[in-house]
Amino acid sequence: MKPASLAILLDEMINETKKGHLDWRLEIQSTDELDDSVKQHMTEDDTEWIVDECFISFNCKYRGKDYLMITYEHIRRHKEQTRSDNLIFMPPLNVRYFDVGILSPYIIDADAVLLDRFHQLWMLLMEMRKKQDGHVSVKVFDPFE
């Protein structure tokens, strides 16, 4: 799917979600809450960076079709500096792995607009989750399992 088409689809899904018409299943795996001592470290240009990774799987049924979209964020920190890379994948429903290598054949060329739509969807779903309205389920996976 092209990024512009997916951005339009996400706009529609966001609107239908706001109306309470879609149920979402989120699966998350992140190193964000772990101690820096157990996180991956990398050296780039003689600088040591601490690496965080975050996968979020968005799954819903929209207009009779199941959708699975997985976002990946690779965040590098050094003191006050932060660098981030983002990837988006649309794998078949049976490919639910949080592994960039396995997901790579299903990559979507993410642009700023598409990344913004995913951020909007994430914020909406987290707000709905706080309200416990029943339209959002969340499962968190340990990154070391």
Describe the protein.
This protein has helices at 3-18, 100-103, 112-131, and strands at residues 24-30, 41-44, 47-62, 65-78, 81-89, 107-108, 136-141. It is of the alpha+beta class and 145 residues long. Strands 1, 2, 3, 4, 5, 6 and 7 form a seven-stranded mixed sheet that branches. A hairpin with a 2-residue loop joins strand 4 (65-78) and strand 5. The radius of gyration is 16 Å and the shape is globular. The protein starts with a helix and ends with a strand. 18% of the residues are buried.
Task: Please sum up the structure shown.
This protein is 28% helix and 40% strand. By secondary structure, the protein is of the alpha+beta class.
By secondary-structure content and strand pairing, the structural class works out as alpha+beta
Proportion in β-strands: 35-45%
Largest sheet: 7 strands, mixed
Overall residue-averaged pLDDT value = 93
Number of strands: 7
Q: Termini separation (Å)?
A: 31 Å
Helical stretch count? 3
Low-pLDDT ranges: none
